[in-house]
Amino acid sequence: MKFGIRQKLLSGFFIIIILFIMMYLNGMHNIQLVVNSLEQTLAHPMVVSRSSQDIEDLVFSIQRDLYGISNSHDSAEINNLIRGIRQKDNKASGLFSLLQKQILGNKGKALALKARITFYQWRPIREKTIALKKNGKGTQAQTVNFTEGDSYVRVLQFELDQLGDFATNNAISFTENSIRVATNAKLIGVITIILTLMISLVISFYLSLSITRRLRSINDVTTKMAKGNFNQLLEIKGQDELTQVATNFNAMASKLAEMYEDLGKKVNERTLELNETNEELNRIKSDLEIKVAERTKDLEEIINELNRSQLAMLYMIEDMNETSRKLKTTQEELIRKERLAILGQFSGNISHELRNPLGVIDSSIYYLQMRLKEKDEKVQQHLERISLSVKTSTLIIDNLLSLTRMNKPILTRYNVIDLLGNCLETCKIPDTIKIVKDFPEIVIHIKAEKEQFRMAIDNLVKNAIAAMNGTGTLTIKICKTEDAEVELSFMDTGIGINPDHINQVFLPLFTTKAKGIGLGLSITKMIIDNHGGKIYVQAEPGMGAKFTIRLPLVREELTEPS
Question: Rounded to an integer, what distance in angstroms lies between the CA atom of residue 223 and that of residue 113?
Fold first, then answer.
């Protein structure tokens, strides 16, 4: 059977391709093992920790609702809290089921089952607390929730923390397994590459050796012919393509020797013709160079004109963007002024109309408190609630008047650190709120009207306390900026602000609170604007909020070191 060069090369090529495919598949298999191990390392602890954290949040939320039920006297509020507990109970049960499916290992499943059993054992205590409250035994309900319910909450917190620790330990074990798999994959890959290279080298050497010997002979003969010695013949042996090449080459060499003599004559004739053609080409080349130079000059002028047009267009686009930004700012300010105008139209009349009946209600409360010497606890509670509502209504009227009839401030020079400290002393801050003050040791002076400035600070502090539900940390910082301004920032740890609402917080009558009308921040912005300053807000849902006030320094402050 005739086995030619093409068959030899194709067979060697296919063998090498098969070896490299095997090496590739082996490498992909090892890489997939490493990827699977890493995915398990990352996903399992994350899922378990997130599920256990969500359950722990629900447990604390249920316990807070139970305290709210024990302390509340409003039946509607109690019913809402009970419905919330039922929903959170169902959600926690679903999370427990999901956690038991997701967690790996018998130990992890046992920990999850133990936490779930504790959660179900806590359920009768919750139902008992609700039943006592519905039967009018609020004190007993509070005692049961405090003594028995809190113990289950602590046990659940401990068991859920154990689940988090278990997931972390599994992550360490998975990481060690990933390192071991990666090391084995690396070793197997190196061995596979070495074996593939060795086999490929052997096959390549064998094929090249069978071909290069005769190619070297052909090269020697063709080299001699290239030097002008055409009387050369190749040795004919074998039965492959090179044998046919040698036979054809010998025939070609004989004909080439004969043609060489005729070629010499024709070369002399063609040389004369080529010289004449070269002279004609040189003339044509000169003409083309002149035309190209002229065309290049025209193109340069066109390109310069296009560059100028493009630059003008960029300037026009920039002006349009700036105009758009100014238009948006003007539109927001018009909306704010329109709301202020609407408030101004009826705030004076409505405040006068409301103050008189509120004053009558307040006088009636005082009269009832004086006449009912031995009133029971429930009557006293209702009288206090009426009195508190009257004060709240009066405060709303004052805020409406402040927003629509704010006088231009009479500015006085103050040390901003002392001024802010005095304002904070008048604010009603619960003991559960931690205040962190980050004030510089240098003296910084601004111009302000003390009462209006105190009102703005009081609104910001109230807003932060409401956002933290009465518990958290409020950080207040003062510093100078490079723009000859002083910056006051108020950072809370509250629920944050929805991104869809962050551009509307300073608009009058905008609020997300159930018991607010949206005037506090509008008044604050008006005061800061009247003081020549600016106020900004930065917030994310669940990450707290930061309100920043920037006020200009007094002129002599600009020469002092910052």
Answer: 88
Q: How far lies 176's CA from each of 151, 172, 184, 442, in Å? A: 38, 6, 12, 55
pLDDT at 61: 87
Q: If we measure between CA atoms, which residue out of 443, 429, 501, 506 comes closest to residue 471?
A: 429
| Higher-scoring residue by pLDDT: 91, 253 | 91
The pLDDT score that the predictor gives to residue 551 is 94
**What residue has token string 């000859």?**
484
Instruction: Report which listed range, 26-35, 96-105, 517-526, 546-555, is most confident.
Output: 546-555
Pair 396, 353: CB distance under 8 Å:
no
Task: Give the pLDDT of residue 534.
Answer: 93
One DSSP character per residue, 452-482 reads HHHHHHHHHHHHHHHHTTT-EEEEEEEEE-T
* DSSP assignment letter at 554: P
| From 14-18, 427-431, 523-527, the region with the lowest mean pLDDT | 14-18
What's the token pair of residue 494? 């509250």
Q: What is the CA radius of gyration of the chain?
A: 45
Three-class secondary structure assignment of 131-198 = HHHHCCCHHHHHHHHHHHHHHHHHHHHHHHHHHHHHHHHHHHHHHHHHHHHHHHHHHHHHHHHHHHHH
Give the three-state DSSP class for 538. Answer: strand
Torsion of CA 87, 89, 90, 94, to 10 degrees: 130
What residues have CB less than 8 Å from 508, skipping those under 6 apart? 336, 339, 340, 343, 403, 518, 519, 522
The beta-strand segments (E) located in 387-428 are 412-415
- Tens of pLDDT along 292-328? 888 888 888 888 887 887 777 777 777 777 777 767 6
Q: Enumerate the domain spans of the chain.
A: 5-202, 407-559
Give 454's Cβ-side CA count (13 Å radius): 14
Which residues, 6+ apart, have CB-to-CB distance to 335 below 8 Å?
A: 507
CB atoms within 10 A of CB 414: 19
> d(Cα 512, Cα 504) in Å, to the nearest integer?
11
* The one-letter amino acid at 105: G
Measuring CA to CA, which residue among 160, 168, 167 is closest to residue 55? Answer: 160
Residue 100, exposed/middle/buried by CB under 10 A (0-12, 13-18, 19+)? Answer: middle
Q: Are the beta carbons of 70 and 82 closer than 8 angstroms? A: no
Task: Determine the 3-state secondary structure of 487 from DSSP.
Answer: strand
Query: Tell me: domain 407-559, CATH 1.10.443.10, correct?
Result: no
Q: Are 52 and 165 in contact (CB under 8 A)?
A: no
pLDDT of 562 reads 37
Both structure tokens of 153: 């909450």
Long-range contacts for 124-128 (Cβ within 8 Å, ≥24 apart)?
Answer: 125/149, 125/152, 126/62, 126/66, 126/85, 126/89
Whether the CB-CB separation of 497 and 545 falls below 8 Å is answered with yes
CATH number of 5-202: 1.20.120
